[in-house]
Design a protein that fits this description.
114 residues, alpha+beta, six-stranded mixed beta sheet, 2 helices, 6 strands
Length: 114
């Protein structure tokens, strides 16, 4: 991860406690200088409940509100059909495939932020 990376934790309210359901790591891509989501992880027991989508939308809104946030990269494993479907649903388009790694790009006009 490039310097200046951020980590955001997803939490689920449960009575007076919170339970971590996963995390998202993002920062600047060292090669392109674009914002990049390096990792999105949701624990197995919380998958399929919309937490990953909600986290992605929040980070996409936050980054796209910056003057340099009109393009966001994400990478994932080629065999990860769940990730491919999620990112495609959010408007990412695949750019490159290197070995088993796929890099996808999201470009947005300010009115298109999810």
């Amino acid at each position: 991860m490039s310097s200046g990376g951020k980590r955001a934790f997803l939490t689920l309210p449960q009575h007076i406690f919170t339970v971590s359901v996963g995390f998202i790591v993002y920062g600047r891509d060292a090669k392109s200088g674009r914002w990049k989501i390096f990792r999105l992880m949701v624990t197995a027991t919380h998958q399929g409940k919309g937490y990953g989508t909600a986290a992605m939308k929040k980070v996409m809104r936050d980054l796209s509100s910056r003057p340099d946030g009109h393009e966001i990269l994400v990478c994932y494993q080629d065999a990860n059909g769940v990730a491919r479907t999620l990112y495609a649903k959010l408007g990412f388009t695949e750019q490159t495939v290197e070995g088993t790694n796929v890099t996808a790009l999201w470009r947005a006009a300010r009115s298109e932020v999810p």
